[in-house]
Amino acid sequence: MTMFDLGWLFHPAILLFLAKGLGNSILLAVICALISLPCGALLASARMSSWALVRYPTIAYIEVIRSLPQMLIIFTVYFASSSAVGINFNPFTAAIIALSAFASAVMAEILRAGLLSVEKQVLEAAESQALSKWQIFTMIQLPLAWRRMTPSLISQFVALVKATALTVVIGVPEFLDRAMIVTSSPPYRAIPVYLLIGVVYFCVNFSLSLLGRRFENAETGGMRHAV
Amino acid sequence: MSFNAVFENIDMFVAGAFMSAKLAICAWLVAIALALVLVSFRIAPQAPLRILGTSVIEFLRNVPPIVIVFFVYFGLPQTGIAMSGFASVVLGVALYSSALMAETIRSGVFSVQRGQYETAIATGMSYVQAMRYVVLPQALRIVVPPLGTDTINLVKNTSLGAAVSVGEIVGVANLVGSRTFAYAAVFTAAGVVYMCLTWPIAAVVNAIEAGLSRK
């Protein structure tokens, strides 16, 4: 077999096996994104609470968890959960909890920055039109903030897709895990397999990034119109 | 929660913390050097160089760093390039971070308006003077905070060493945890180590930022 004969890798059974792994990776990322959005919103509102007893513990949670490597959070949830809370999580559940715990903290900061980016004058103008606080939030602040946050939310999802690869260390059957299984069977060639999954990760994440950039351009374009 | 498992194996934890720091410092130096090379390709006037630089940057930043480390650790030896775990983590983490840093540096230098440079030249400054006194001070002020964020992410990424048994802090914590089952304690200790490693970086960035904005 020559070095460039890749028939073994592009065999339908192998590709299907890898594709299932990729499916699990994306499923994991989507689940974590769906969890981290409401959890992040909750953390962001607690972070901006006027009640110090709520605000400071939230700040502490957000700052501490963001300063830790996700690898460490994954290990902690998977191994320490049984001794700390007496529950044994399976790898997939542990991965969801660990990645969501981190993503929620990041999400909270994105949401907070987005909400704070809405100019005070805009909110005051709304107030002068006798809109209620709730109306101002849902009709003015949130829609404006949402448009500005969209690029950050997409790059956060890209970060989440990349982070799913870390769950290989606790044996989640995701893309990298499947790739490792392929490399540990004949003909035991690692380079083509890692290049292939690298290219697939790139295609998924780069197309998401391009989508984010389109929103970014649309946003600045819209701003230019307004001015 | 009892921290006996940590104190009884304190020598391992100290060695692990030093290994993490060593990985981070080596990876940072390689990453900055690679980032400067990538930036010079990325903004080259020749289209082929520019396309090459852009492609490499976009590829590296959109791939999970653990895949890059595994490629280096498991893949390169098959071509005859022997890679130790340490070298694999340094190279893998540096390759990933260099792409992020390249984009940070590029957007910082480009955010200084062209008029600033042109005005400096018009007042009789040489290219070097214009760069030294006008463009770079402004670019540095913009670049330092996000470069600090990139550096903190690089430090956190050295935890990938746990996946290729380098003996850095997460790997040590995992090993001690598997012997003593005091997982909560050992991972808390590892978390404290990361805070001790990243806090000085944040402090240095803040100090540089304060120093630059005073000028």
User: Biggest sheet of chain A, open or closed, and with what strands and sense?
Assistant: none
The count of helical stretches of chain B stands at 9
Q: What level of helicity do the residues of chain B show?
A: over 70%
**Count of strand segments of chain A:** 0
Strand content of chain B: under 5%
Uncertain runs of chain B: none
**Major pleated sheet of chain B:** none
Which class do the helix and strand fractions of chain B yield?
mainly alpha
Structural class of chain A: mainly alpha
Q: Which oligomerization state do the chains in this entry correspond to? A: heterodimer
> What's the total helix number of chain A?
8
Radius of gyration of chain B over alpha carbons?
21 Å
Description:
The complex is a heterodimer of chains A (227) and B (215). Chain A is an all-alpha fold. Chain A has eight helices and no strands. The longest helix of chain A is centred in the last third of the chain and has 37 residues, at 190-226. The model of chain B has no long low-confidence stretch (mean pLDDT 92). The A-B interface holds A 64, 67-72, 75-76, 79-80, 82-84, 158, 161-166, 168-169, 176, 180, 183, 189-191, 194-195, 197-198, 201-202, 205-206, 209 and B 1, 58-59, 62-68, 70-71, 74-76, 78-79, 152, 156-160, 162-163, 170, 173-174, 177, 181-184, 187, 190-191, 194-195, 198.
What's the SSE blueprint?
The complex is a heterodimer of chains A (227) and B (215).
Chain A: H1 12-47, H2 52-66, H3 70-84, H4 91-116, H5 120-128, H6 133-164, H7 175-183, H8 190-226
Helix pairs in contact in A: 1-2, 1-4, 1-6, 1-7, 2-4, 3-4, 4-6, 5-6, 6-8, 7-8
Chain B: H1 4-8, H2 10-42, H3 47-61, H4 65-75, H5 85-111, H6 114-122, H7 127-157, H8 169-180, H9 183-214
Helix pairs in contact in B: 2-3, 2-5, 2-8, 3-5, 4-5, 5-7, 6-7, 7-9, 8-9
